[in-house]
């Protein structure tokens, strides 16, 4: 039996189990154990699990697992929560740099719980007749709708995620509605295989596709089921974007110990 000291964080309702693994204590954590910890009835409950690891040349390494127990692609809200956790663990510098599965990132903190996370540049967007498809650290299918609140995100999202094109690798699916100020985004997440309250890479993908005008700097307010985020970026070409920042709250919910 392994004793784990964990922390539970959330960023606009996207919630995560986090452990300080800088001493390598949790290196032997299995996929089954990760799945058990993320289980909302038989574990702590979370959309994903992260390890704060040591990595030479960076302030830390981000190791991310989906709720199904498998290591996954980049998670934007997870990255923001891990930055807030790193601060709690004593990394006090104003700018933090870390490495994740999709490459290096930098981040800044504002106040007690507001985290600005720099995402990877995007240089390709598929623009279909009824959708956009792009990778913002994770793959996202973006579809604009007239009434996002009325969408059955689980059913429609699952249908797209498991269609002939995406079934093997999977994709996240975002349903987006234009609002008076910004956009409202709801997301079906692969690996969770359900709707989540928020998705950082999905919010980022939706905000980029919303900027369909001239090449300039944009600030897009984004509403999710779990709260408000903001995406800042520069559009540098018809389908290219740089200096992309995902900004929003990341807060500690509780910490505890569990034996598995």
UniProtKB/TrEMBL annotation:
<feature type="binding site">
    <location>
        <position position="14"/>
    </location>
    <ligand>
        <name>substrate</name>
    </ligand>
</feature>
<dbReference type="InterPro" id="IPR001653">
    <property type="entry name" value="DAP_epimerase_DapF"/>
</dbReference>
<feature type="active site" description="Proton acceptor">
    <location>
        <position position="199"/>
    </location>
</feature>
<keyword id="KW-0028">Amino-acid biosynthesis</keyword>
<comment type="pathway">
    <text>Amino-acid biosynthesis; L-lysine biosynthesis via DAP pathway; DL-2,6-diaminopimelate from LL-2,6-diaminopimelate: step 1/1.</text>
</comment>
<keyword id="KW-0963">Cytoplasm</keyword>
<feature type="binding site">
    <location>
        <position position="66"/>
    </location>
    <ligand>
        <name>substrate</name>
    </ligand>
</feature>
<comment type="subunit">
    <text>Homodimer.</text>
</comment>
<feature type="site" description="Could be important to modulate the pK values of the two catalytic cysteine residues">
    <location>
        <position position="140"/>
    </location>
</feature>
<feature type="binding site">
    <location>
        <begin position="189"/>
        <end position="190"/>
    </location>
    <ligand>
        <name>substrate</name>
    </ligand>
</feature>
<feature type="binding site">
    <location>
        <position position="172"/>
    </location>
    <ligand>
        <name>substrate</name>
    </ligand>
</feature>
<keyword id="KW-0457">Lysine biosynthesis</keyword>
<feature type="site" description="Could be important to modulate the pK values of the two catalytic cysteine residues">
    <location>
        <position position="189"/>
    </location>
</feature>
<comment type="function">
    <text>Catalyzes the stereoinversion of LL-2,6-diaminopimelate (L,L-DAP) to meso-diaminopimelate (meso-DAP), a precursor of L-lysine and an essential component of the bacterial peptidoglycan.</text>
</comment>
<dbReference type="GO" id="GO:0008837">
    <property type="term" value="F:diaminopimelate epimerase activity"/>
</dbReference>
<protein>
    <recommendedName>
        <fullName>Diaminopimelate epimerase</fullName>
        <ecNumber>5.1.1.7</ecNumber>
    </recommendedName>
</protein>
<feature type="binding site">
    <location>
        <begin position="76"/>
        <end position="77"/>
    </location>
    <ligand>
        <name>substrate</name>
    </ligand>
</feature>
<comment type="similarity">
    <text>Belongs to the diaminopimelate epimerase family.</text>
</comment>
<feature type="binding site">
    <location>
        <begin position="200"/>
        <end position="201"/>
    </location>
    <ligand>
        <name>substrate</name>
    </ligand>
</feature>
<feature type="active site" description="Proton donor">
    <location>
        <position position="75"/>
    </location>
</feature>
<dbReference type="Pfam" id="PF01678">
    <property type="entry name" value="DAP_epimerase"/>
</dbReference>
<keyword id="KW-0413">Isomerase</keyword>
């Amino acid at each position: 039996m392994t004793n784990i000291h964990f922390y539970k964080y959330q960023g606009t309702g996207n919630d995560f189990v986090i452990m300080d693994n800088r001493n390598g204590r949790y290196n032997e954590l299995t996929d089954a154990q990760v799945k058990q910890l993320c289980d909302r009835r038989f574990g702590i409950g979370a959309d994903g699990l992260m390890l704060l690891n040591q990595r030479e040349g960076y302030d830390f390494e981000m190791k991310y697992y989906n709720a199904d127990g498998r290591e996954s692609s980049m998670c934007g809200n997870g990255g923001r929560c891990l930055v807030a956790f790193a601060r709690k663990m004593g990394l006090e510098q104003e700018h933090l740099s870390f490495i994740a599965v999709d490459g290096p990132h930098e981040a800044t903190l504002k106040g007690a719980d507001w985290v600005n996370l720099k995402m990877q540049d995007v240089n390709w967007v598929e623009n279909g007749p009824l959708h956009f498809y792009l990778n913002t650290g994770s793959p996202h299918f973006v579809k604009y709708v007239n009434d996002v609140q009325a969408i059955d995100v689980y059913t429609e999202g699952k249908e797209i995620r498991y269609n002939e094109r995406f079934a093997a690798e999977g994709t996240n699916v975002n349903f987006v509605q234009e609002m008076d100020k910004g956009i409202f985004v709801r997301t079906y997440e692969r690996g969770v295989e359900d709707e989540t309250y928020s998705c950082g890479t999905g919010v980022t993908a939706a905000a980029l596709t919303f900027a369909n005008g001239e090449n300039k700097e944009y600030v897009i307010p984004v509403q999710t089921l779990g709260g408000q985020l903001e995406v800042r970026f520069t559009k540098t070409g018809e389908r290219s974007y740089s200096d992309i920042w995902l900004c929003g709250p990341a807060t500690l919910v509780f910490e505890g110990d569990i034996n598995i």
